[in-house]
Amino acid sequence: MSATVEFARMNGLGNKILVVDMRGRPDKVTPAAAVALNADPQTEFDQIMAIHDPKAEGTDAFIDILNSDGSKAQACGNGTRCVVQALAAETGRKVFTFQTVAGILNAVEHEDGTISVDMGRPVFDWDRIPLAEEFHDTSRIELQIGPIDKPVLHSPSAMSMGNPHAIFWVDRDVMSYDLARFGPLLENHPMFPERANITLAQVTSPTSVTTRTWERGAGLTLACGSAACSAAVSAARTGRTGRKVTINVASAKPPGVLSIEWREHDDHVIMTGPAEWEWSGTLDPSTGLWWREGTREAEAQ
Prior knowledge:
The protein has an 18-stranded mixed beta sheet that branches. It has a two-stranded antiparallel sheet with strand order 9-10. It starts with a strand and ends in a 9-residue tail after the last strand. It is of the alpha+beta class. The protein contains 4 helices and 20 strands. The longest helix is centred in the first third of the chain and has 15 residues, at 77-91. It folds into 2 domains: 5-120 and 276-292, Diaminopimelate Epimerase, Chain A, domain 1 (Roll), CATH 3.10.310; 144-267, Diaminopimelate Epimerase, Chain A, domain 1 (Roll). The protein has helices at residues 31-39, 77-91, 179-187, 225-237; strands at residues 5-12, 15-21, 47-52, 61-67, 72-73, 95-100, 103-109, 115-118, 144-145, 153-154, 157-160, 164-169, 197-205, 208-215, 219-221, 244-249, 256-262, 269-273, 276-283, 290-292. GO terms for molecular function: diaminopimelate epimerase activity. It is found in: Cytoplasm. The active site is at 76, 76 (proton donor), 224 (proton acceptor). Belongs to the diaminopimelate epimerase family.
C-alpha cells in the first residue's frame, strides 16, 4: 500500500479545508499528521475532511473530520461543501449522502455551483449539547465574561449542530470584540465539558445576521458552517428573525454569505453556499509530509 494519498487544499468562504482521499485504505489521518500539516503556512487548515469508504448502506462515504490541533470534530458544514465539490468534479454526480460521527448528511450541488447540505436537526437539550449544568431553556443560559456589573459578553444561546455551540448576541460590529482573547476562555469554560464553538452574532435585519466565530480546536476562523447554522437557528428560536436568513460571515475573505433555512416541516437545517478548489497534492497520512502536485521534492519536513 502506498504511503501517500491525494489531497486538495480548498475553502468554504475562507474556511481552510484539506480534503484527503483515504478510500481503499484501513488507516486514518493521524493527529500528529494534522498538527504537522497545520504548522506549515502552505497547508495550514481549520479542518481536515478525510474521505473513507462507506460504512453504512446507502451512503457514499464516511467522513472523518480533524481539527487543526489534531482533535476530532463531529461536523463541519463548510468542509462538507468542499467534499461535495471534489466528488462532483470526480464523478459528475450532484447528489451525495455522507456518514459522520454526528450522523447522516445529505448534500446536493446546484447548477450555479452552490452546494446545499442538510445538517440535520439541532439539539437543544442541555445534557446532549452537552452543558455541565442543567438548563430548562438553553436559548439563554447563565454565562458571562467581563465585570459582573458590566459584562462584555453574556447570556448566550446554546445548542448542538452535531457539535457544541454558544451564540453570544451583540449590538455592535462583531469585529470590534477581542474574540482572540475571549475565545479560548469560553471554548474551554467549565460549562462546556466537550468544549464549544463560540460565535458572536449581530442581528442586522429580520432576515440577516452577521457572525464571527472562534472554532473549537481550530481558533479564530474565517468561516464556520455549523456556527452559521447555529446562529440562524438560535436567532429564530429567540424571536430575533424568521426561519430563513442570510448569514454574513464578517471574517470571510473575500466577504461571503451563507443561506440558512431551518425548515418548519421537519426542523432540518439546510445550509447553502460556495466551495472553492485552490490546489492539489499528495501527503503521508501518518506523518503529514506532503508534496504539491507536479513536484518531486517534499514541501515539508
